[in-house]
Amino acid sequence: MPRSGAEARRRLQQAALELYRERGFDRTTTAEIAARAGLNERTFFRHFPDKREVLFDGEADLRASLVQAVAEAPGDLQPLDLLLHAFRKVEHLLEDNRPFAEPRLEVIAATPALRERDLAKAASIAEAVAGALRQRGVADRSARLAAQIGWATFHQAAQAWIDDPSQSLDAHLLQAFSDLRALCRTP
Amino acid sequence: MPRSGAEARRRLQQAALELYRERGFDRTTTAEIAARAGLNERTFFRHFPDKREVLFDGEADLRASLVQAVAEAPGDLQPLDLLLHAFRKVEHLLEDNRPFAEPRLEVIAATPALRERDLAKAASIAEAVAGALRQRGVADRSARLAAQIGWATFHQAAQAWIDDPSQSLDAHLLQAFSDLRALCRTP
DNA sequence: TCAAGTAGCGTCAGTCACTGACATATGCGG
DNA sequence: CCGCATATGTCAGTGACTGACGCTACTTGA
User: Fold this and answer.
1) Is A46 (CB) below 7 Å from strand C?
2) Residue B1's pLDDT band (boundaries 50, 70, 90)?
3) With contact defined as beta carbons under 8 Å apart, do B49 and B56 qualify?
4) Based on the number of CB atoms within 10 Å of its own CB, is A5 exposed (0-12), middle (13-18) or buried (19 or more)?
5) Within A 22-41, residues with CB less than 7 Å from strand C
6) Is A78–B187 a contact, with Cβ atoms under 8 angstroms apart?
């Protein structure tokens, strides 16, 4: 068996995704994942802190890119426009990854335990974005609220993009932010 | 030991909250919770499906009350005003229960595993609220977006209420929705 | 009042996620 | 070829959670 480390990590992720799809998350043991990857159960837990985390690896990249995009955005934007600008800068991370991410999203949607983790990751990203907003002088509560609202809108756009691939993610994103503005408008 | 069932359930919740605060969630075993409640570990799992759920009992009530409040709100309100109206109708569920709600929210905020469950409950409630909005004729995407945004705002108000009890939850709620309006305003 | 049914509980054995301690193997620079 | 760091294997253990079975208190109906 290769001794690379990063290679083993990739094999574990692949084996886990396969088994979660074949038998379901609950009927898959960590020992089985490790076995399919040609490794030991103990090694699985050296690469991933728990059975769920094996499917959540790109999250750190997305968060870092978003934080950077917020930090580097033009200075004259107000929070929600700033967030829209930042989301448009990172949407390629999703669009480039679509064929690989689709089975993963299916498994997550079908497994409560994985959906919980997914929500936690989303909250973590929103928190990081709020921090980036604060760095730009946005007041604490406004920053938290804007980050959560912005992420919810982004998430809505991503979901619409999965359901309807005929339009680009960018188009869905603009549509979602337009919906958001319309919601907040007081007639 | 009393044989009531509902009484045992309450003792388990109380014991769990106390122990999670004293030792932390991770250093508390389900056997300890049961022992403090004068019960057996097996009985704990007859009342609650897992170690986290013992702190999430009122969620079903809150969800049902929110859905009802949305359904019964005046007919001429915009989605966000409608949600604010509904939240004000159910905030007494938190204010009346503050001695239990406050330490509970503190423990949840301090424990990643409980935060995950909290986020899952929030998503479930938001989904139900979105359904109630749809029943009132709000378009599907707007309903989902409004429910998530509204809940995020409500949650922010509840957090502020915990951090600063000098003002009522209602005041914090109005403040949070005012912040939301300000965020969406385009100058 | 008592027999029978039922709901809540206890006990036991077992699976599986996860962890610490220690041993072993692999690939590196010297 | 030799130490050394890193990746992995082995073992024993804890604790969450489950199924099966038996016990006990409370209720119900004759």
Assistant:
1) no
2) very low
3) no
4) exposed
5) 28-31, 41
6) yes
Read off the pLDDT of residues A81-139 as tens digits, 9 standing for 90 and up.
999 999 999 999 888 888 778 889 889 999 999 999 999 999 999 999 999 999 999 99
Asked if B143 and B123 touch (Cβ cutoff 8 Å), the reply is: no
Non-local CB neighbours of A11 within 8 Å, separated by 6+ positions: A37, A38, A39
Between residues 47 and 106 of chain A, which touch chain B (CB distance below 8 Å)? 78-81
CA distances from A158 to A34, A165, A168, B124, B150 (A): 32, 10, 10, 19, 20
pTM as predicted: 0.90
Q: Are B79 and B133 in contact (CB under 8 A)?
A: yes
Q: Which residue from A145, A152, A184 is facing B156, i.e. has the nearest CB?
A: A145
- Torsion sign across C-alpha atoms B163, B152, A59, A175: negative
B2 exposed, middle or buried (CB, 10 Å; 0-12, 13-18, 19+)? exposed
* Backbone phi, psi, residue B52, to 5°: -85, -40
Distance CA B87, CA B173 (A): 8
Q: B145–A153: do the CB atoms touch at under 8 Å?
A: yes
- A169 Cβ neighbours under 8 A, 6+ residues apart: A91, A94, A95, A157, A158, A161
Report DSSP state, residue B167.
S
Percent helix / strand / coil, chain B, rounded to 5: 75, 0, 25
Structure tokens at B55: 């702190």
Cα–Cα distance, B13 to B184 (Å, whole number): 40
A160 touches chain B (CB under 8 A): yes
Contacts of B157 (CB under 8 A, 6+ apart): B87, B169, B172, B173, B175, B176, B177
